[in-house]
Design goal:
Elements (H helix, E strand, L loop, with lengths): L1 H4 L8 H9 L2 H10 L8 H15 L2 H15 L3 E2 L8 E2 L3 H23 L4 H11 L1 H4 L12 H14 L4 H11 L6 H17 L2 H6 L6 H17 L5 H4 L1 H16 L2
Antiparallel strand pairs: 1-2
Helix pairs in contact: 2-6, 3-10, 4-5, 4-15
Length: 258
């Protein structure tokens, strides 16, 4: 997991993972009620990357620090549904399982698009290790599907249960069309949006009213061919720069609190 999770190309699937999470009504309303993509578009991505790198690539102390930070952030994310939306709590194991599942599936999807299919033994090892993204929080080990075949069945069932409404589609629009953020984000957003939409399952695009044409699919396939030709040849220090950056920031945060 350490080797795979450190590849920065996986960040290209981050938007896919977030939209799949938003399409769960409880998670989507939790984000709508407690996040601010319009003013702080990078917060969820930064928090997720910091947590994933700490769990996958950090020391036990770094993983514990990142986990505690996520737990603190989750504390206010709850609703009894009295306002008309679904009841939810960010501590619900089944919701955390779905978040971890989207991170795993998006990472494997992106990795195999660039590097080719993993052999079964390595794929099994990575799958078992990815369970830690959920079990470090409130997901009991037995809730993570036991095998990749079990996960595939769980994944297909959950895809069929996804739904959106005006509130969650609005959050998705804020994510994909952020009016704020640093200049590099604004310049890169059209490309990030294109990759995100292309990586989504077709029916999830429909849930968010995201247009995708045969021409877009052809451009998407050409883009993947270019990435496959260029990215693996980059030096590891460049490919793993985001991982190292987030771990340095985490260590600085740990030092600041003693």
């Amino acid at each position: 997991m350490h080797e795979l999770a450190g590849e920065s190309v996986l960040i290209a699937a981050g938007g896919r993972s977030i939209l799949l999470q938003l399409a769960d009504p409880q998670i989507g309303h939790g984000v709508a009620d407690h996040s601010n993509f319009a003013q702080r578009p990078l917060d969820r991505l930064n928090g997720t990357l910091s947590y994933v790198y700490a769990i996958a690539c950090g020391t036990p102390a770094e993983a514990a620090h990142a986990t505690a930070r996520v737990n603190r952030a989750h504390k206010p994310v709850q609703s009894d549904g009295a306002g008309g939306g679904p009841a939810y709590s960010a501590y619900t194991p089944q919701l955390q399982l779905w978040v971890a599942a989207t991170l795993y599936d998006s990472a494997i999807t992106m990795y195999e698009l660039i590097y080719g299919r993993l052999d079964d033994d390595r794929a099994d090892d990575i799958y078992r290790e990815y369970a830690a993204l959920g079990t470090a929080l409130q997901v009991p080990p037995g809730l993570w599907p036991a095998t990749r075949a079990d996960f595939a069945a769980y994944w297909q069932r959950r895809l069929g249960e996804l739904a959106t409404d005006a509130a969650t589609r609005s959050v998705a629009r804020q994510l994909l069309h952020s009016p704020t953020g640093p200049l590099w984000l604004k310049l890169g957003m059209p490309f990030a949006r294109f990759l995100t939409i292309g990586l989504l399952p077709a029916h999830v695009r429909d849930l968010f009213d995201l247009e995708w044409t045969p021409g877009a699919e052809r451009r998407f396939r050409r883009t993947l061919r270019v990435i496959r030709a260029v990215y693996p040849a980059l030096p590891e220090r460049i490919r793993h720069w985001p991982k190292n950056h987030y771990l340095r920031s985490l260590r600085a945060s740990m030092a600041a609190v003693g």
